[in-house]
Write a structure and sequence with these properties.
By secondary structure, this protein is α/β, with parallel strands linked by helices. The chain folds into two domains: 5-240, Helix Hairpins (Orthogonal Bundle); 252-402, NAD(P)-binding Rossmann-like Domain (Rossmann fold, 3-Layer(aba) Sandwich). It is 60% helix and 7% strand. The protein is built from 16 helices and eight strands. The chain has helices at residues 5-19, 28-47, 51-59, 70-87, 91-109, 116-132, 142-166, 178-189, 202-242, 259-270, 301-306, 322-334, 351-356, 365-378, 384-392, 396-402, and strands spanning 171-172, 198-199, 252-255, 275-279, 293-295, 314-317, 340-344, 361-363. A six-stranded parallel β-sheet has the order 5-4-3-6-7-8, sandwiched between helices. Strands 1-2 form a two-stranded antiparallel sheet. Strand 6, helix 12 and strand 7 form a beta-alpha-beta unit. It is elongated.
């Protein structure tokens, strides 16, 4: 049965993706660039040639700076900063980028700028691309968490300071300079409240309440974002210290949770070989504590190094998807280790494609089943050499040279 046009297109895209090293930069790098450009575009559209003028206003005390300019400035700067987090594939940076793009689109919906409709469409496109690529941002990065914390605190501080400054006449005593506004913002954000400056009008009181609520939320979220990865790493070190893991060197790495992978791991372990299982996710039944295993994306170089693939005797890719097995072989080769690669093939139509990545051994036991059944039913002779050649899809001495020997 020939593959469908959709399947052929998918295979070609996957091959192109692999050839250009897409897993190292796509889609997080293009999205980071688009987000950063969107932030610069928003700042340029809002400020134009008024950068110097606005900077002079800020340095001279801030009088004359319209408060409507603050949201686009904060959103634009936030996008530029969060673009760095997207480069790290941080899930937190992805969530912040999504929120900033949405906020930018909403703010532009009420804007009168001549290019507002173009920016509005740009941010809607950013939202769609971020949502489409959400699976690619699955890392917890301390750097991205720190960026998030600093960005949140700075944006809140700017909001509180300039808000106090523009409502200065509604406080007692009146706030007439940015230094006093900054002092009141810090005192209110930290919920200290010395009482030397107090809001007098309903608008000023509501503004103070908003600072307190946002301050508590931002500080709590920022501390959690920064401290949680540190605590998680400490706990992992404690747990790993308790576990007596084997030395991941000169061992076998069996990838997948298929029946073939399970049986291969079981037989290697029964013969006394050190084996590490690499699974994409934890099985529902769990993994016994005595079994050395790693959870992660099989084709990710960092995950493969964690499993010791660069120091292993052999890496056996035995996933359900033949294309993923091929990607694993290419990823292992990029590690430049000494490990031999074994790729399992589940579909006869994919055999030629898997061979293109040149694994040391191509094992196809499921393909052999139909051929053996037909031979037995028609009375053809089945020899051991025939079985070995068909199972490992090798010929003669080449096959014998690449099949790992097992000790009894």
């Amino acid at each position: 049965m020939l593959p469908s046009p959709t399947q052929r297109l998918r295979n070609r895209v996957q091959q192109l993706h692999q050839r250009i090293g897409g897993r190292h930069w796509f889609p997080h790098v293009p999205l980071a660039v688009l987000l950063g450009l969107g932030g610069f575009w928003l700042l340029q559209d809002e400020l134009g040639r008024r950068w110097g003028h606005i900077l002079d206003l800020l340095l001279s005390g801030g009088r004359g700076l319209h408060p409507a300019s603050l949201p686009p400035i904060l959103i634009g700067l936030g996008m530029v900063i969060m673009a760095v987090g997207l480069l790290l594939r941080s899930r937190l940076a992805w969530a912040m980028a999504l929120a900033l793009a949405a906020a930018g689109a909403v703010s532009l919906g009420f804007s009168q700028h001549p290019h507002a409709h173009l920016l509005f469409g740009y941010f809607l496109l950013m939202l769609a691309l971020l949502l489409f690529a959400w699976r690619q941002f699955d890392r917890t990065s301390l750097t991205a968490s720190t960026l998030f914390a600093l960005t949140s605190v700075v944006m809140l501080l700017v909001y509180a300071t300039f808000g106090t400054f523009y409502l200065g006449s509604e406080f007692r005593p009146q706030v007439t300079d940015l230094v006093t506004a900054l002092y009141y913002a810090m005192v209110t954000m930290s919920t200290v409240g010395y009482g030397d400056i107090t809001p007098q009008t309903a608008e000023a009181k509501l503004f103070a309440v908003s600072i307190i609520i946002l301050g508590v939320a931002v500080f709590a979220t920022s501390l959690t974002a920064v401290i949680a990865p540190l605590v998680t790493r400490s706990l992992q070190r404690i747990v790993n210290r308790k576990d007596k893991r084997m030395q991941r060197e000169n061992h076998f790495v069996v990838i997948g949770n298929t029946p073939l992978a399970l049986n291969t791991w079981r037989e290697l372990a029964r013969r006394g070989h050190p084996v590490t299982r690499l699974l994409r996710q934890e099985p529902e039944a769990g993994v016994p504590d005595a079994v050395d295993h790693v959870i992660g994306e099989p084709s990710d170089g960092d995950v493969l190094r964690k499993a010791g693939a660069d120091k292993a005797q052999a890496v056996l890719a035995m996933l359900d998807d033949d294309s993923e097995n091929a990607f694993v072989v290419l990823a292992v080769r990029e590690l430049a280790g000494k490990a031999r690669t074994v790729a399992a093939v589940n579909d006869a139509n994919h055999l030629g494609r898997v061979r293109l990545v040149q694994p040391d051994v191509v094992i196809a036991p499921q393909i052999l089943g139909g051929e053996l059944a037909a031979m037995l039913l028609t009375g053809e002779q089945v020899t051991a050499d025939f079985v070995m050649q068909r199972v490992f899809q090798q010929t003669g001495a080449a096959g014998a040279a690449t099949i790992p020997k097992a000790a009894n």
